[in-house]
Write a structure and sequence with these properties.
about 290 residues, alpha/beta, Rossmann fold, four-stranded parallel β-sheet, 15 helices, about 5% strand
């Protein structure tokens, strides 16, 4: 009898705990959407050589931050965190708009910003915009692991997949995000890249990005930049790229879990047949023109 009571109590506590986690995640996601309005209203003095690296989360953002940092500086690794030299635009504003204004103004040109905003929410300035699209099935797998390692998500992949398909995650719908930027891929200030092509030809992408941003690269620097943008180098320096590094010890996060694998095709092995069919059907419906 006592054992039965204990099991029921544990089941009840587990249900309550899971419900609270779900509520907390919902509140966090809702708070981001509210703060986005503040970001859209944010005004700063723009510069003609500003560069915005824009992605949906888990789509090569950190790689592009590193690439642009290497292209616009001498590339030394003495920074505490990549966000100090290539700041996350909307996150800085959400934290403290006044401090963000001062920080952005003090940055040397050309300034490079990381951004996860949809096209309508992204500030339209005089600079350049580099958008990276990654295969959505790989994104959902990587995002699921990120939610588990950094956002305390304890649900199953199937549960997270449903959230992702319905846009009930941070930064909402992957389909809408990609479609919004795809429609502007031919704008003169937009460079639309595919993650798979980027990683397949890293030196070629570096040259393409440099040309788009009017940046000069000494020939001897290209192999150095390519090496420093490679997975092995960035994995060795992971604490400088994990956005929770500063909070890791306090919150118990694992320091070696932000840059997972960086591989193509992981969605193929993780999604079940039904999920693949649903994903492809929705992609055809909403992103047919993307191909």
């Amino acid at each position: 009898m006592n054992e039965t009571i204990k099991k029921n109590a544990n089941r009840l506590i587990g249900g309550v705990s899971g419900g609270l986690r779900t509520l907390a995640e919902w509140i966090e996601t809702a708070a981001i959407q509210i703060d986005l309005k503040r970001t859209v209203a944010f005004e700063m003095e723009d510069r003609a050589d500003d560069i915005f690296v824009v992605t949906y989360p888990r789509s090569g953002t950190t790689l592009m931050q590193m690439m642009l940092y290497q292209l616009t500086t001498d590339g030394n690794m003495d920074f505490q965190h990549i966000g100090m030299v290539v700041p996350w635009f909307e996150r800085r504003i959400m934290s403290n708009p006044q401090a963000a204004m001062a920080y952005f103004a003090a940055m040397p040109s050309p300034r490079v910003f990381k951004c996860h905003l949809s096209y309508p929410d992204t500030p339209k300035k005089r600079g350049k915009y580099i958008y990276v699209m990654r295969d959505g099935q790989d994104v959902v797998v990587s995002y699921y692991h990120f939610y588990r390692s950094h956002l305390s998500f304890r649900g199953t992949f199937d549960e997270f997949f449903e959230r992702f398909m319905n846009g009930q995650v941070q930064f909402q719908s992957w389909f809408d995000h990609v479609q919004g930027w795809w429609q502007h891929r031919n704008d003169p200030d937009v460079l639309f890249l595919r993650y798979e092509a980027l990683t397949a030809d890293l030196p070629g992408t570096i040259l393409r990005v440099a040309e788009f941003c009017n940046l000069q690269i000494p020939p001897e620097r290209l192999p150095v930049i390519a090496e420093r943008c490679g997975f092995e180098f960035m994995k060795r320096h992971e604490p400088q790229f994990d956005h929770t590094t500063g909070l890791a010890l306090d919150r118990g996060y694992q320091l070696a879990s932000f840059i997972r694998k960086g591989k193509r095709g992981e969605g193929e092995s993780v999604l079940n047949l039904s999920q693949k069919e649903r994903f492809e059907q929705k992609k055809r419906q909403e992103l047919g023109s993307v191909g």
